[in-house]
Amino acid sequence: IFVRVALGTLLERYGPVNVQCGLMLFGAYWVALSSIIFSDWSFILIRTMIGCVGASFVTNQFWCSLMFAPNIVGTANATAGGWGNLGGGVTQIFIVWCLFKPFQA
User: Fold this and answer.
1) In degrees to the nearest 10, what's the CA dihedral of 78, 50, 96, 85?
2) Which one of 25, 37, 38, 64 has the fewest beta carbons within 10 angstroms of its own beta carbon?
């Protein structure tokens, strides 16, 4: 929640393209660091930082609001958000299937 609030200020100041790029670079850095997790606290720290990238939803909604006409901006935001949620749901199902299917007799 704190990252989403901070992104609102950054979006107004630097624009959605620059903020989205910075957020993705921030996430890439922490994903790369996840290869050297060595203790409980490093896992928690790195996972928290990667979780902050989930606030990219805010930049996407802001960006859609700028790109589309006022009469269809609500539909555009709903569609973008819906596809994002669908992707997350399909990923959860697929990953569970990939991880547990090989262990079934």
Assistant:
1) 0
2) 38
For residue 105, what pLDDT is reported? 63
Rounded to a whole number of angstroms, the distance between the first and last alpha carbons of the chain is 43
Q: How far apart are CA 64 and CA 41, in angstroms?
A: 37
Place of tokens 């990953």: 95
What global pTM score does this model have?
Answer: 0.74
Cβ neighbors of 47 (< 8 A, separation 6 or more) are 34
Per the CB < 8 A criterion, the answer to whether 55 and 43 are in contact is no
User: Structure tokens of 62?
Assistant: 């802001």
